[in-house]
Amino acid sequence: MSDPQDNEPIQGPVHVTVDESAAGNRLDKWLAQMIPQLSRARIQSLLHEGMVTRDGGTIEDPSYRVKQAQSFCIDIPAPVEATPQPQQIALDIRHEDSSLIVIDKPPGLVVHPGAGNPEGTLVNALLHHCGDSLSGIGGVKRPGIVHRLDKDTSGLLVVAKTDRAHQALAAQFEEHSVERRYEALIWGMPKQAEDRIETRLGRSRYNRQKMTVLRQNGKHAITNYRCTGYYGPAQAPLACRVECRLETGRTHQIRVHMAHIGHPIIGDPVYGQPRMRRKQLPDELNILIEQFDRQALHAAVLGFIHPESGEKLRFESPLPADLHELVSSFERL
After folding, report:
1. Domains identified in the chain, total number
2. What is the DSSP pairing of strand 219-231 with strand 194-203?
3. Do 143 and 28 fall within a single domain?
4. Do residues 222 and 258 share a domain?
């Protein structure tokens, strides 16, 4: 293989052969050295996507130890356009004016493009709906986005359509004056029917995709919760419906806080799926939970001051169909 220049884009099949000095190295580390335009993380992603082959067979293990004279082919796809492109995606618009738009987001919709989700996001949909008016507001990749919801969390969020609205809304979120209430279904029953959870949150040192409660450092996080329904035996409910009111808005905040007090959100694939409690449920409810492929969390209330008129706006969103069905099934216990 000819020596490519680091600053040149690279795509298509690239063939590399292991020489004597590289024998025994990890595959991902060696490939990153051989193809300097690609980071080690990008190499690992290509491996997991089946884009690396040896003698026609796919190699997916980044820790594979290479041997002298082995040849590998890396199929590097064309680079993705950095700027999000407009896409016609249906939106449930609860309010819209010249300054902002309030969306009721369905579960499964990513808010803005990122690794693994270059398109099909709320931002792509907003660019199609709003045209050029969003360009540059809040950044190229996150135009108009003031706050976000996790991909599999449903409910309300507000998007700015002007720089002035973006700055004013961002200030309200920073001051914690925005009303945000969530509905969640959690495992078990907390010791306190109503309480305030105050911790510091940061990335887990063991899994960078997860957030965790930290003793030091991290960001200050406050969640107020109130139990509004209990399901199962009166003395030891199997599940509980809670209303959560945020004072801060950290990544995965409610999910981490509920897991922290020992009552993770039902359906949460990251922060807890207690098997023991599920053994006590009827088969039909267990099947429904198995099919419920997201955390049972919904942004039900959003209230803020309009950045132009000064009017207090408040929106409510009912439980989406999948979560309503799950709650109804627990109510029949």
Report:
1. 3
2. antiparallel
3. no
4. yes
Contacts of 256 (CB under 8 A, 6+ apart): 201, 211, 212, 213, 221, 250, 271
How far is the C-alpha of 286 from the C-alpha of 228, rounded, in Å? Answer: 22
Q: Active site includes 132?
A: no
Could you tell me the CATH number of the domain that includes residue 69? 3.10.290.10
The pLDDT of residue 45 is 83
* CATH code, domain with 292: 3.30.2350.10
Alpha-carbon distance of 256 to 198, in angstroms, equals: 11
Tokens linked to 277: 């409690």
Task: Determine how many CB atoms are found less than 10 A away from the CB of residue 21.
Answer: 8
Range 256-284 average pLDDT: 86
Tokens of 115: 């690794």
Q: Of residues 150, 152, 268, 322, which has the active-site annotation?
A: 150
State which H helix or E strand residue 326 sits in: helix 321-331
Q: b/e for 265-278, b at 16 or more Cβ within 10 A?
A: bbbbebbbeeeebe
| Residue 209 predicted with pLDDT over 80 | no
What per-residue confidence (pLDDT) applies to 1?
Answer: 35
* pLDDT value for 37: 75
- Report if residue 7 sits inside a domain: no
Which residues make Cβ contacts (< 8 Å) with residue 129, sequence separation at least 6? Answer: 91, 101
DSSP H or E run through 211: strand 211-214
